[in-house]
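Page header: ASSEMBLY MODEL / two components / 321 residues total.
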Amino acid sequence: MSAYTVEIRVMPRASLLDPQGQAVQHALQALGFGDVGSVRAGKHLVLQVQAATREEAAAKARTMCDRLLANPVTEDYECSVSP
Amino acid sequence: MQRVAVVVFPGSNCDADTLDAARAAGSEAYYVWHRDTDLKQADAVILPGGFSYGDYLRSGAIARFSPVMRAVTAHARAGGALLGICNGFQILCEAGLLPGALMRNARLKFLSRPVRVRVETTDTPFTREYERGEELVLPIAHGDGRYVADAQTAAELNANAQVVLRYVTENPNGSMQDIAGICNAGRNVVGIMPHPERRNAPVLGGQDGARVFLSLEARNATQHAGDMRAVDGRHLRV
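Prediction written out in full:
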């Protein structure tokens, strides 16, 4: 077993309204960043996971996302594993 | 007299009002702590409003893994009446006991005020005492009340008359199809965003919410629940 760092990015599904992202975009425009076309706000989680292999760490992370870390109705996620 | 269990999660804050409303309707209501695994022969279970676990990660996402939820799920699967109010509705969606999800209000603001809703079905244990099409004034108090579901789920909700309450006059949170409350296909699990326990007596400005609790005590509601248990071949009252 060794420790892997798993980074998980959870984003609101593209087809759904993201009012938080919109509010950030409006704030950026108010600051003069009028060239920002869109903003979407999600979550970034960093986990230390014990696993035998990198693949096992990734599989565990996907299970965690399916069961808790992301809502399958409203969110998509991506995982990346580094030693 | 129905036995009504009001589940208390860390961060629940409508539990006392909900208990009072159930008692005012004549039920034998009592609290069940989220770590308990026994619902004490409840006829009906209510998940009250609040901010369980600080709404961390997503509203209701962590509460659904509380020990009590195993018993709540078994109660629902056996056909027992189960109501989620506000945060309770969010928990039921996260737990997969109701379809869809509740997202941040479209205009981001936390909304705490009375709204108008229409009763879309009386065929649930919590709406039997209303008239279909009746309009009610009930308070909302939520930041995450925008109901969303995929197109197939939305079609099923409408085809099976599973929408329980809809906002009328205005849609406060951007909810899909003005949905304020739904039930499951079995009709025994109901989730609503408005707070009937906050408007169940004239002193609170109105009593449009009282019949949610009176419905449980109504004779036909008992018979309905009895039928469902008989079909399932099991009794909730051990």
